[in-house]
Amino acid sequence: MGIGPFSSPVSDDKQAEIKELIEAVLKTFTLQYTKAYAIALVKHIKAEMQETQEEWQLLERPKDSFKKPLKTGYLVKQGGLRKNWLRRFFVVRPDYKVDYYEDEETYNKGGKVKGSIAPCGYSVCDDLSKDLLARAQDIAEKMGIDAGDIPGVDKYPDFCWEVHHSRRRCYFIHGANQEEKDEWVKVFKMCCRHCYGFNNKDPVAQEAFKVAIRKTRWELGRWGYWTYGGTEEQVLSDLIVDELNWTVLRDIYYNIKGPYSVRMTIRNKVLQTLDTVVLSAVTPAYKAMETAVKSLRGRVESVIREKIEPLFKAQEEIKEKIKSAVLETVSPTLSEKVAPRLAGIVQILTSPMTEAFQESRSVFDEKIAHLARKVKEKNGFGDQLDSYFHDLDYAPRSYWVMRDAFRKVDVMEEPLWALRQFFDEISPWSLIWQGHDTLRMVFSAQESLVEQI
Asked: Is 402 within 8 Å of 361 (Cβ atoms)?
């Protein structure tokens, strides 16, 4: 593993160990992905066959109906190579990816994009002095460097923030003042949370990939929550590099000698080379997996549909028999012990959601009133209909616009944790985030109705 002008801290034995671990993780992931895909395909077919059309449905606004940018404006960013500061015109797309142009005129004319930021898997650091120092201290600890040897962090312009990823390119950007910084930091945080990186849009493949990633980590003994983002190849590469950090790279980093600046340069070169090596192994392996399961799906899907229908019928009959037998036993207990307390539990959960919907409606009414004022000022819509609805498009996607409604949902955290003592399957924050997403969906449905009218 060459690293330019520096002598490599990665011995032949370590290189062999790295190669062996990459192959082992890919093998584990391949098995997990194949199994997960088969299970997800059966579930998908089952759901399709059992799907019934309700008379009334709350439909989510189609994602491709959002055309206008969520935000545009001039910012100053640091160049990737020369590290000079350049003023660029930024455009936040409806899919939460961010493009930047030479200037606004180039954008308006449909000119060439200067660069793009796909922030899936990224985070926003808005206190650079604190964040950069903490990061340097963490790296120094892993490499056995004395804290006193850490130089001061780089100085950045006022009103600057970083769109950060531990191994991909990071972006340093600054605004003209504190107000502009605060506004754009909120937007970038929203983009980091909602940007979706998977290239394969097939829901079966997406579900299988998520399950396979989780179970591969479990096979490696890595438990707990792990955030990730990017394309499938990037996520799988991140998983492998994380595992290498745990098992191999700690020793390599610790044994790098020399002054702080030299050691950090060598470390960064090692990481850069490692990322390239891992991605070059992951890309063909994942493509081969995708091709294999796609081919398999074409051969077995019709067979599954044919064979599974009688199984569903038998399953429903068994479920009804079990239900009847269980209810005969537990109904008296439910009536005596659970029913008196159920109303209180329902009240704990429904009251915050009711208040949240009311708050969401207030935000919606406020946006509609603002739209009406703009129309009145202009004596009608004219040819500006799309621009008038821009605020409505943006509102449900912004935490800061919806924050008062979301906070009504957040108060459920404590009672949900209390309920978890009795119901292990309750995941408080998952339910709270689902509540946030439901509020967004309802807001978008109202907006879509207004636009149709």
From this structure: no
Which of 280 and 223 is assigned the larger pLDDT?
A: 280
Count of C-beta atoms within a 10 Å radius of residue 52: 4
Of 409, 405, 406, 411, residue with least CA distance to 365? 405
pLDDT tens column, 97-112: 999 999 999 999 999 9
Backbone conformation region of residue 159, classed left if phi is above 0, alpha if psi is from -120 to 50, else beta? left
State how far the Cα of 201 lies from the Cα of 261, in Å rounded to an integer: 44
pTM across the whole model: 0.65
The partner residues of 164 in beta bridges, in order of sequence, read 123
**Longest C-alpha distance within the chain, in Å?**
79
Residue 195 main-chain phi, psi, to 5 deg: -65, 135
How far, in Å, CA of 50 to CA of 297, rounded?
Answer: 20
User: For residues 217-234, b (16+ Cβ closer than 10 Å) or e, as one string?
Assistant: beebeeeeeeeebbbbbb
Percent of the chain as helix, strand, coil, to the nearest 5: 65, 10, 25
Cα distances (Å, whole numbers) of residue 420 to 51, 224, 424: 31, 18, 5
Q: Write down the pLDDT at residue 67.
A: 74
